[in-house]
Specification:
Shape: elongated
Number of domains: 2
Number of strands: 16
Strand order of the largest sheet: 11-7-8-9-13-5-4-15
């Protein structure tokens, strides 16, 4: 299993802490044996969870210009028509996906084309499913323009646990549908803002797989 590069500092820190903890339990056995074993098992479990969080699954790039693919793994928590104030400044279809700490936290380009907009916003750390998290939390906004179908906006949003948003997409760069554009650490959310005439193909509560599940299709 390959691990994501964003996990290197965290894994080194956790590895050092776990090794020190296990060494202390063996070197200075002041606790009852069963309690030492329990603490040791807990330390190993923490390390395994962190390793699992930074896993990189093998996924083939999709090739479907009519489709808007999920930008992340997670559960659909919002499907509604809203006003998008940052870039489009008009009404759009919003589809939001909540990523739990157990999900893969890589973010993928939902459409191909060219990145026409990128902006990072510092902000709060409300829980990711809070209605105001889309406009008040720490977040990064990216817009891709497809040569045939126009623009789609997608926004990485930090949550109560997610304290680092990594965005690799920059204005003027080519964007390959399904390719990685970012990473969010430890629980978060991604919002998509689609054209009003897009045909949404998901339902609330549906589980998405990044770069594999179709969120919607362009109408033209």
């Amino acid at each position: 299993m390959r691990l994501h590069r964003e996990g290197t500092p965290t894994l080194l820190l956790v590895s050092a802490a776990v090794c020190f903890g296990l060494f202390a339990l063996l070197k200075w056995p002041v606790l009852p044996a069963f309690l030492s074993m329990l603490i040791g098992a807990a330390l190993i479990a923490v390390f395994a969870i962190v390793v699992w969080f930074f896993r990189v699954p093998k996924r083939a790039l999709p090739h479907d210009d009519t489709a808007i693919f999920s930008p992340c793994d997670g559960k659909v928590v919002v499907i509604e028509e809203v006003y998008e104030p940052e870039y489009f400044k008009d009404k759009r279809l919003q589809v939001s996906i909540f990523m739990s700490p157990l999900n893969v936290h890589i973010n993928y380009h939902p459409i191909g084309g060219t990145t026409t907009y990128y902006k990072y916003h510092p902000g709060k750390y409300l829980v990711a499913w809070h209605p105001k998290s889309s406009t008040e939390n720490e977040r990064s906004t990216v817009v891709n323009r497809h040569p045939k179908h126009g623009e789609v906006l997608f926004r990485q949003i930090a949550g109560a646990l997610a304290r680092r948003i990594c965005t690799y997409a920059r204005e003027g760069q080519p964007a390959a549908q399904g390719a990685e554009f970012g990473f969010i650490k430890f629980g978060s959310r991604v919002d998509l803002f689609l054209p009003l005439d897009a045909k949404v193909e998901v339902e609330l509560g549906q589980i998405m797989t990044g770069s594999a599940s179709v969120i919607a299709r362009f109408n033209h």
